[in-house]
Amino acid sequence: MSRPTLTAVFVAFLLTSSVAKPNAKDKKPKQVVPAIECDMRAGKINLPEFIVKCPAKCRETKEKVYGTGVFASISSICNAAIHNGVITNSGGKVIVMKMGGQVTYKGSFANGVRSLSLPNWRDSFSVSVGKPKKGVIYPSTLIFVPSRPTAENTVSPATEPSSTAAPPTTTHVTTPIATAPPITTSATPRVTVHEVRKAGRSHPYFSSVAHSSYSVPNTSYKWNRMSTGDPTVLDPRPDNTEYEQYGQYPPEPEDHKPLSETGHTKDCKVDIAFLMDGSWSIGKRRFKIQKDFLVDVSQVISVGVAGPMMGIIQYGDDPVTEFSLKQFSSSKDLKPAISKIVQKGGLSNVGKALSYINKNFFSDANGNRGGAPNVAVVLVDGWPTDKVEEASRLARESGINIFFVTIEGPDENEKQNVVETNFVEKAVCRTNGFFSLPITSWFALRKEVQSLVKRVCDTDHLVCSKTCLNANDIAFVIDGSSSVGTGNFRTVLQFVANVTQEFEISDTDTRVGIIQYTYEQRLEFAFGQHNNKADLLNAIKRINYWSGGTSTGAAITYAADQLFSKSKPNKRKIMIVITDGRSYDDVRAPALAVHRKGVIAYSIGIAWAAQDELEYIATDPDREHSFFVDEFDNLYKYVPKIIHNICNEFNSQPRN
């Protein structure tokens, strides 16, 4: 046997060395983080837990957020992360964890983002800093909620899209959402979404969420010029930012619940009351068309306990429940029931019918499920014979989403006969067209079945209820005394504009009135005098400085007489007094009088204002309603604080 050569021995040594001694520092799997846009909602992504990267400047997009700590799935992921202090407005990585729906979501103001309140929602999520735990690798590809039952879109992280880039790949996914958790290379057990859902509120996760506190409000408030170039008033944001870009009504969103091939809606869980017109003006033939329309709707929405439930009220002189929400649990049973409805006759008292459903229809006894949005669809021949504004507002404030289907509405010559002008705009949640469906002819009504069903089943837009931003009468009582001076008075007006622009302004939402005072008082404008944000902010800009003494007590009494005596029922009455000195008259008795009338009073003192008077004026507790700044230029710091307190106080009160 021959001896091996030196070269062969050396090669064998190298081979055995490479096998026997693996590199102890093998590279760990690198976490690839998909990038998303500011408008991406958690509900669009079909994963129980995932990591994403948010871009910069999402706060400026004003994408909606619902909740605090735990957010409704229709919320923007990035703005929820900013609100929760997980990232700044510069963007960053965020870990998102899905969880079950909550009974209520409380809005709050934090880090420059104001979240809104929501009575309930089907799914939730939380956000945390985008630093995965050791050994955890999250999916590098996002799986989106399918637009069709058989497929889901998947998008891998990529650089900026180009016109030549290939379209996103589409894969068929047959496994349920819970089977795609983050990949873990550690033996340490992880908490799964199913565990949290199964345990409910008793799970330890919720104890950490429940004790999270709001972040300190961002005091770097932006002061921008209006398009007119005047530096004293902020550029007014539009009242209906959510829909205005779409014109008449928004197009179907990407995650809209589509109609399936069989004509039935998917995931349409709503409680719907149809208010059918039974007045004599409609006639027998058109009443039959109306019933056929309701039959068509009932078949398309596929009524059932797991989906939509449907009830019908017929109105004329008085409303009558034909059948409640719980009376029929299938479309098959509804069809003959609707066909048997007999016309009652009478006038078209829509306002009375809306009051009726608000007080009587959506109740547990009638089958209201609580977790499903309440929807009222009003069918009107021509126009109502009574006023609808007040009844509609009260119904909306109870959380009822009102749709108006008007058939053969008044033409220009007939408008003089209408009891209440612009009754549809006054009745629906927002004047953007989404909640109104005008039909030119009764014979065209049945063609609109699909359009109406898509809207009432679009639960992402059924968030029509009273909020801290649309349910107020706010009176600013401004000190115009000689010690203020012209320059400082303009600063006060800018502060008033900054506060005002945060609210939804209209005659049916928040209304603003302003009083300026010295020894005397002057009503600059009353509640409802300026019913859109642009007009209101321009009116604030035009207020002229008065100059004189300081009688704050008399000004508070004047506000009670001239403004709050004309407040609408169920409006929250808020008074904000701004003064820079001690009053020449007593403030205690006038302040106590407005407190007893239900006015929530805030006092803001500047420079030489008397602390004891500020506390007398303010509603208890003083620390939440009374503020002091050493100079006028620091007023802007209290804009987010005041908005936060107004909304926090609203959310802590029982709803009507």
Strand adjacency order, main sheet: 15-14-13-16-17-18
CA-to-CA gap between the ends? Answer: 102 Å
Which descriptor suits the 3D outline?
flat
User: Which spans of ≥5 residues are poorly predicted at pLDDT below 50?
Assistant: 6-11, 13-22, 147-264
Q: Can you summarize the main beta sheet?
A: 6 strands, mixed
What features would you describe in this structure?
The chain is of the alpha/beta class. The chain is 25% helix and 18% strand. The protein has 17 helices and 24 strands. A six-stranded mixed β-sheet has the order 15-14-13-16-17-18, with helices on both faces. Helix 11 links the parallel strand 19 and strand 20. The radius of gyration is 30 Å and the shape is flat. 44% of the residues are buried. About 20% of the residues have low confidence.
